[in-house]
Amino acid sequence: MGTACANRTPDCQTIQNALKAEKVAITFSDGTGKGTFPGVPAGSYYLMIATRYNNQGLRWGFKVDLKSGPNSITLDQSNGVPVN
5 and 12 in contact (C-beta within 8 Å)? Predict the structure, then answer.
């Protein structure tokens, strides 16, 4: 997705539309990288997140097992992957 969108190919929109159709929840993080999911059904989910930090692209993509009620995550450089 990153490559398709960076190169502005039609695949970018196709991928984004597919992800929107399958999303369960959206959360935003604060300045420290902490975000809280709203109450979503318990189960296994896959996070797909990308941002820029200190002029470096970073992405996260991993499985999380959520319990009932609110769940928190922390994203930082130690668990992100640099994007070139």
Answer: yes
